[in-house]
Design goal:
The chain is mostly beta strands. The protein has a domain of 42 residues. It is 8% helix and 13% strand. It is built from one helix and three strands, in the order βββα. Bound molecules: zinc ion.
Amino acid sequence: MSPPPECPDPACGRRLLWKDTTHTKHGPEFWKWTCSGCRRQYEPTHHDRRRYAHAAPGPAAAAPVVHSSPGPPQPPR
Ligand SMILES: [Zn+2]
């Protein structure tokens, strides 16, 4: 599964967005991105809606942001 994108606001510190499905009463595709840092909501792009259509909603707890010492490159999944 693809990791979620980072907050588009550079001042936020590259927090990850999570898939907020609290507004999907009009349909499962009407979810939004919510930033785990600043809590602002962002409209997913058309590409995002397709790419993350089956992603699990909720905070991306399994993907902490690491700022120090990048490790070896991860193999593509
Ligand atoms: Zn943010």
